[in-house]
TrEMBL record:
One of its GO terms (molecular function) is transmembrane transporter activity. This is Sugar phosphate permease. Residues 34-434 form the Major facilitator superfamily (MFS) profile domain. The keyword Protease does not apply. Keywords: Membrane, Transmembrane, Transmembrane helix. The chain crosses the membrane at residues 31-49, 69-90, 102-120, 126-146, 158-180, 186-210, 254-277, 289-311, 332-354, 408-429. It comes from the Bacteria.
Length: 442
């Protein structure tokens, strides 16, 4: 291991146990894979927390008498804050370190979800599952994946990003059917207790094993040299976030990426992730069976998103996004025609699931190619904010459509059309690096 000494505030810090383990595994495995595994698990738990409201719609409606528009309002706030926190979380990771940021998020999630079991009024739903869970999941959002990938990996960056992105799908796979069963047999409170306990268990592992950077444990990034490592930033995270946005917003490509991810969120988290269980329930499908359908999508997306990461190292990311959005749009057009039969829904789950969030690795690749490794996590955070703005709009708007029209079908058709139009839009993104933006960042 290279003996590297660096100012603590330049490359962050590492727990003593992490430094010891990094020395022990030297020559057999790069410690970046441990950092990636911890990021994967953190994102997996965050995905489980974010998925929980999807199984709470019907139990809360039955137990407390709240209508779906009221519950959807809290979910919409949650989704919006999850995305809006992204750039600030990335800036916070630059300013105070990755480990402290994650621990803050996990602590907030654990306390909030456990205490949410005491709620009896809609405003308490807005405060807990809306405001506080939104802030907590925002601190453990996909900007964590972008930060870890850009700090720890030069080689295999796309593959690792695909694996970390797939953690969201795996979170659904692990948590959704179990949470639906818990809500059915033990009441909705059991869901909050379960996801809160998961966050509590994970926090010590992050605190003991996750360094802020490779150099903090005496390493260079995988496949690179010490010169490739990005030093930890300094300054006010809010200033960092908005200054980076100011540079990026001068580029048309930023707005094309932002707009495409807006539609991505509208057609995934906000629509299918939030409302598919309720839509299936309307068609006579029990909650546990509907949750299993989302879990099946998660299984397919685990394969599709990991493959997307591998492809993003080899294929023009714009072409990948063209196919992903186009195929997603067709699958949403098909859903109302499936008859919600076992056969029809299985086809939808496979077709839609393969690119549920396969858009993330090529989008991160385009952001990195366009704006450089240093700014990429924060800029991706702003692009991700667009994703969650679209998701929030879909979560709330679809709840209104269901309440007023008595059907989810119009929402599926609108989202499908938006995806097809976005497939064309992404072809106009320019992959060339923005030298002016990079120069301003120096």
């Amino acid at each position: 291991m290279t003996d590297v000494t660096a100012p603590k505030n330049s490359f962050g810090s590492a727990p003593p146990l992490a430094r010891h383990l990094a020395r022990q595994v030297e020559g057999r495995m790069h410690y970046g894979w441990v950092a990636a595994a911890l990021a994967f698990t953190t994102l997996l738990v965050g995905a489980g927390v974010r998925a929980a409201p999807g199984v709470l719609f019907v139990p809360l409606e039955q137990a407390l008498g709240w209508d779906r528009a009221t519950i959807a309002a809290a979910v919409s706030l949650n989704i919006f804050l999850y995305g809006f926190m992204g750039p600030f979380a990335a800036a916070l990771m630059q300013a105070v370190g990755v480990r402290r940021t994650i621990l803050t998020g996990l602590g907030l999630l654990a306390v909030t979800t456990i205490t949410s079991t005491l709620m009896t009024q809609p405003w308490q739903m807005m405060l807990s599952w809306g405001l506080l869970v939104g802030l907590g999941t925002g601190l453990t959002s996909m900007t964590l994946a972008a930060t870890v990938v850009n700090r720890w990996f030069i080689k295999q960056r796309g593959l690792v990003m695909g694996l970390l992105t797939a953690s969201s799908a795996t979170g659904q796979l692990v948590f959704l059917p179990g949470m639906a069963a818990l809500a059915t047999h033990f009441g909705w409170q059991a869901v909050g207790l379960t996801v809160g306990a998961a966050a509590l268990v994970l926090a010590p592992l992050v605190g003991l094993l996750l360094p802020d950077s490779p150099r903090a444990v005496g390493l260079a990034p995988l496949g690179g040299t010490l010169e490739d490592e990005l030093p930890q930033g300094s300054g006010n995270p809010i200033v960092i976030a908005f200054t980076t946005l100011g540079r990026a917003s001068k580029s048309v490509d930023f707005w094309l990426l932002f707009g495409s991810f807006f539609v991505c969120g509208l057609s995934t988290n906000g629509l299918i992730g939030t409302h598919l269980i309720s839509a299936c329930f309307d068609q006579g499908i029990p909650e546990v069976a509907a949750a299993s359908l989302l879990a099946l999508m998660g299984l397919f997306d685990l394969v599709g998103t990991t493959g997307s990461g591998w492809l993003s190292d080899r294929v023009d990311s714009r072409k990948l996004l063209f196919w992903y959005y186009g195929l997603r749009g067709l699958s949403l057009f098909y859903l109302p025609l499936s008859g919600f039969s076992l056969y029809g829904l299985s086809i939808f789950a496979a077709f839609y699931g393969l690119d549920w969030i396969a858009t993330v690795p090529p989008t991160v690749r385009l952001v990195t190619d366009r704006f450089g490794r240093r700014d990429a996590p924060v800029i991706f955070g702003w692009v991700g904010a667009g994703h969650q703005m679209g998701a929030a709009l879909a979560a709330y708007g679809t709840g209104i459509i269901r309440t007023e029209w008595g059907s989810y079908f119009p929402a599926f058709q609108v989202a499908g059309l938006a995806c097809v139009l976005t497939a064309i839009m992404v072809l106009f993104i320019n992959r060339r690096r923005n030298t002016a933006t990079l120069a301003a960042a120096e």
